[in-house]
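Database export, one record per block. Field names are fixed; values are copied verbatim from the stored entry.
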Amino acid sequence: MGLDVGKVTIEYLERPEGLAYEFGYEMATTAQAWGEGNALGFYLRRDLLRQARAFARQSNATPEETAALVHWVRGLPWDGGGYTALTFNW
C-alpha cells in the first residue's frame, strides 16, 4: 500500500444569492476546518440537501426560496459518489 499525495486547487463558484447565500454562510461557519477568513467543509449530497431543507424551514422560507436553495445545492460540484469539498473565503 502506498501513499498518494495530490495538489488541491480552488475554482471559485458563482456567489450564491438570497437564501443560498445565508445557507452558504451557515456552511462556512460550521465547516470542519477554518481560520482567519477561510474555511473548508466536506459534504455528502444527501446530507446537505437535508440540511438545506431544514434551514429553509427554520428561516420560514417561501416554497420558491426553498426550491432555489435546493437547486443551488444540487448544482454544487458533486463527484460520482455524491461527495464534495468546498472552500469558503470571507
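Remark 1: Strands lie at 33-35, 38-44, 83-89.
Remark 2: Residues 18-29+40-89 form one domain.
End of record.
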